[in-house]
Hints:
Radius of gyration: 17 Å
Shape: globular
Number of strands: 29
Order of helices and strands: EEEEEEEEEEEEEEEEEEEEEEEEEEEHEE
Largest sheet: 15 strands, parallel
Amino acid sequence: SALTISSASADSGLFGVLRKSNINNLTVEGDITGNSQRLGGITGCVTGATGEVTKISNCISNVNITSSDSCAAGIIGYVKAGEVYVVNSINFGSITATGYCTGIIGVNYATAKVQNCANLGLIKSTLYSAAGILYSANNESYVQNCYNGNSIQSLAAKTVGAIGVMDTGKTINISYCYYLNGSATNAIGGATNDDGVPKFTNPGDTCKLSILKYGTTDLKTALNTYGNTGYQYSKWLYTVNATYKGFPVFKDTMARLNAEPEGDGSKDLHTPIASEWKNISEYVDDSGNIIDGVS
C-alpha cells in the first residue's frame, strides 16, 4: 500500500488506532509528516481493555516518518493499553521525532512482545531517547530474536539503545537479540550493562557476531536457530542487493528490495509463501493466551 500523510494529527498511520485487531501479511510504503504524537507506519496507537490482544504479524514498513513531536515508530507509535504482539516484521523507514522513536514500537505503556523482527531504518531523536526496537515505559516489555542494523541517534545526547531503552525504574526483557557494531553505544539504554548482547560486524562480512554467546558466528544462523524455542518463526535469508547486502530479511521481501535470496539466482515472488509465513494465531489465541511455548 502507498501511504502519504501530511500535517498528520495524533494517532496517525495506515491505521489510526487499533483495538483487539489482527493485521497480517501487509507491506506499506510512503511518508508521514506532522507535528503530533503517536505516529506509526502500521498504526499510530494500540489500546484495549485488560486481556484484549492486538496481533501484528508478517508486516513490512518502509514508511519515512518526520515529526516535531514524540512517539513515532515504523510499526506502532504508541501502546496505550491492552496487549500487543508483533512477530515476523521489519522496519526499513527512517524515523525522526523529538523522542521516543524506534523501529518497531515507539513507547509501550502496557504489555508488548516483539519477536523475530528487525529494524533497518535510521532512527533519529532531536531531543530525547531513541531505540532500535522498543522503548519501555512499563515492566511488561519483551524483545526476542530481533536485531537492529542501522544507526540510532539522539542529537541532544540523551539515552539511546540499539535494541531498547528503559524508562526510569522500568525494565525491558531482551533475549537472543543482536545489533550492528557502532549503531549505538549500548544495546539497552538505561541499563547498567548489556548482559553480553552480541554485536555483529559489517554486512559485507555476512554479519559475523562479536561473541559466541549463542554458539554461532553468523547472524542469520542465530536468528533461525537459537531464539526459535518450541515454535516456528519466518525464515531469514541474506540479501545480495547493494543497499542491504548481508542483512538477513524475510523471503518475501526480496522482490521489493530488488534483491536475490542467498544461493538463488532467481527473483523471489512478492506474495508471501505459506510455508515461510506463520499466522500469529499460532502464537496467541483469540483470548490472548500465549501458546506454543512463547514467553
